[in-house]
Amino acid sequence: MPAAIETSKLTKWYGHHSRGVIDVDLVVEAGQIFGFLGPNGAGKSTTIRLLLDLIRPTSGTARVLGLDVHRDRLAIDRRVSYVPGELSLYGDLTGRQLLTYLGNLQGTVDEAYRDKLVERLELDTSRRVKTLSRGNKQKVGLVAAFMIRPELLILDEPTAGLDPFIQLEFEHLCEEARGEGRTVFISSHQLPEVEHLCDRVGIIREGRLLAVESIATLKERALRKLEIEFGGAVDPAAFAGLPGVQDVVIEKGVLSCTVMGSLDALVKVAARFEVVNLRSIETSLEEIFMAYYGAGDATVVGKEAGHAAA
Ligand SMILES: Nc1ncnc2c1ncn2[C@@H]1O[C@H](COP(=O)(O)OP(=O)(O)OP(=O)(O)O)[C@@H](O)[C@H]1O
Ligand SMILES: [Mg+2]
Questions:
Q1: What is the CATH class of 223-282?
Q2: All residues with CB under 5 Å from ion ligand 2
Q3: What are the structural domain ranges in the chain?
Q4: Does residue 32 carry a pLDDT above 60?
Q5: To which H or E segment does residue 225 belong?
Q6: Model's pTM, two decimal places?
Q7: Which site among 80, 123, 274, 296 is 20 to 30 Å from 91 CA-CA?
Q8: Which overall architecture, per CATH, does domain 5-215 show?
Q9: What is the mean pLDDT of the chain?
Q10: pLDDT above 90 covers what percent of the chain?
Q11: Phi, psi values for residue 138, rounded to 5°
Q12: Cα of 218 to ligand 1 centre, how many Å?
């Protein structure tokens, strides 16, 4: 099966000076929920517009569902749903009219499924779209996107503006789509919003893709602060040079350190002594993520990121 999305050295300059994205090599396997994360102006929407052939690249290529985004655009359009960040909809229509119209454009729509989506997202389809709040407009876009059961959903910041309950329902929809082998590509600024939903995330900053990782790998890379309280004397030398273990301080029978990755080596050495208590404080994924985001000083993670992107 071809990748749902595959780009090679995808680059977009808007004019000579405005950087869109640079040399983006991205592969999103089919059947995944993929989070595309980056701060404002990073290049998320630019990448998405390139994937949809709404803009043309300066250089590089993009394929969607194994097809060339430009040459095979019509074929792709029938198999992909896109919800842009800022929806401009036909505002004078009611939600129901608009969904019917969009459904007709696509051919046949499973009306029972569409109505179920409307109900689950608590969308009032009797109101004219232009009178809807931002979040409710977003729901119209989401119903329209999901109702055709596309092979690939490309959603530009879909959760912005949704209240927590609807956000949860949206996540269920994504998981159901994945369960049916479909692919969901979601952009976001906020890792916590998508970390429990996504299988993998790509992190983009200043137009460059820094890393693509599984959430599990990101978590493994998390630094942990560890404190071990001992009942008797310990030999500090025993704790020197353990893999991934840094900043070891032993004071008043309490060892504190930071550990990256597995705790195994440390715990095995500690077990030679009498352990009274053990406390582990995990760095949040958000902190790892901010290290990718942070300007210039993406220390530990930044180095790894360069490696991962290579
Ligand atoms: N039409 C345009 N003309 C000129 N520059 C543009 C245009 N669209 C985007 N850019 C520039 O491209 C860069 C990437 O913008 P893009 O909209 O892709 O970012 P984004 O990651 O989607 O940000 P946000 O989170 O704010 O939506 C920015 O520096 C932006 O100024
Ligand atoms: Mg954007």
A1: alpha beta
A2: 44-45, 85
A3: 5-215, 223-282
A4: yes
A5: strand 223-230
A6: 0.81
A7: 80
A8: 3-Layer(aba) Sandwich (3.40)
A9: 88
A10: 67
A11: -60, -40
A12: 27
